Amino acid sequence: MPNVLSTDPRFIRYANCDPEKQKKIVFEGSFLKIIMGSQVLDMVDLSNFFHPASINGGSFKKRVYIPSGGSYSLYGGNIAQDQGEVSMIAIRVKYDPSLPEAEKLIYWEYEGNLSPCKNLLFLTGKTLDHVKHHGWDLEPYSPEASTFSPVLSPQPTSPDLSLGGIVLKNTTLKEVEVEILVMN
Amino acid sequence: MATAPLICQADLANTLIEGGHFDKCTLLVTKDSTIVNSFNFCDFSLDIDEFFTQNLTLGPGSAFLLDDGGLANPFGEVKFLLIKVTYPQSFTQDSNKYINLVHESVTYPIGELHVWTGNPGDSAGMGIAVSPSGSPQYSSGGIVLHNPHLNSVSIKIILASSEIQGIYTTAGTSGTSGGTSGSSGSSGSSGIAINADYYGTSVNTITIPT
Fold this sequence. Notes:
The complex is a heterodimer. Chain A is mainly β. Chain A contains no helices and 14 strands. At the A-B interface, β1, β3, β4, β5 and β8 of A face β1, β2, β3, β4 and β8 of B. β11 (120-124) of chain A pairs antiparallel with β11 (113-117) of chain B.
């Protein structure tokens, strides 16, 4: 009898693909909802969300295309406060439809930490005009080095971890479209 | 259309009427009544499996170790994390409307809203690490929310797992086994728990040493 290898059925994982059973997170109206079919399981009311801009700040929006294996450095430009902080960052990622679902993932690196981003990243904080406060540091040449986790995997590849800014890394095999809104 | 709320006098020193707010599923940045920028979330969709929501009040100076609700995969990771913070009227200065999120030894700010997404998979690092791995400093995962202020804040948390978790089953049966999704404070998954490094307890408030 030939020695044929087969998958042990105990280790096969099955997903419930019935659309009526599939749970999704979506935006509907001013709500972020968790739905299952036509059923709303939970929701977050965003109608009362208001993020004020700093007096010397503003906002910018950009759409960038990051090639496979490439990266994009996000900086605060002239809307950041004096030390380079901004108070809000929203990022959406769109993938080539041919990519398998499991591979639709990019990474963002900030202050030495590498984190995943599937299709949405929304960050907020608070800034003051002339002193570093509690914003997101998008200053490319910040002299204030931040501490970071000593054990990182995979290792970040920033040339200098004391720099601010967010680096978006496309580790997929296809170009990704990234839409970014920065506000301060 | 949502309208920008009135900003109290104390905040005017640092802010104008320019700001971002949601008009249905679009985030509009407006200055007075002019739309300066817009950011569309209307086609956003994220498939999930089980989820866990929690509302809590975080007292002055308190810290809270986020509970993974039993949703994390074997690497202690989830697919979606949302944290929405509501500040009471006692927060008169807009610049004070922040809390801290400590993750992998880095402290991040949260103003009003924080959303992370990942895609937990066959290797570590693809999802959002929420389960503390045993390190008292949470250097390998785990999320701590810390309120540095003298007043309490209200927080809503949503955690969701990937559509295919590491739940092992025999051929011909569903990979998930139900559970009471969405009920506050309870796990959304009642499948076979294989996340061995689950330490979180949603009812415990811990204090970060300063």
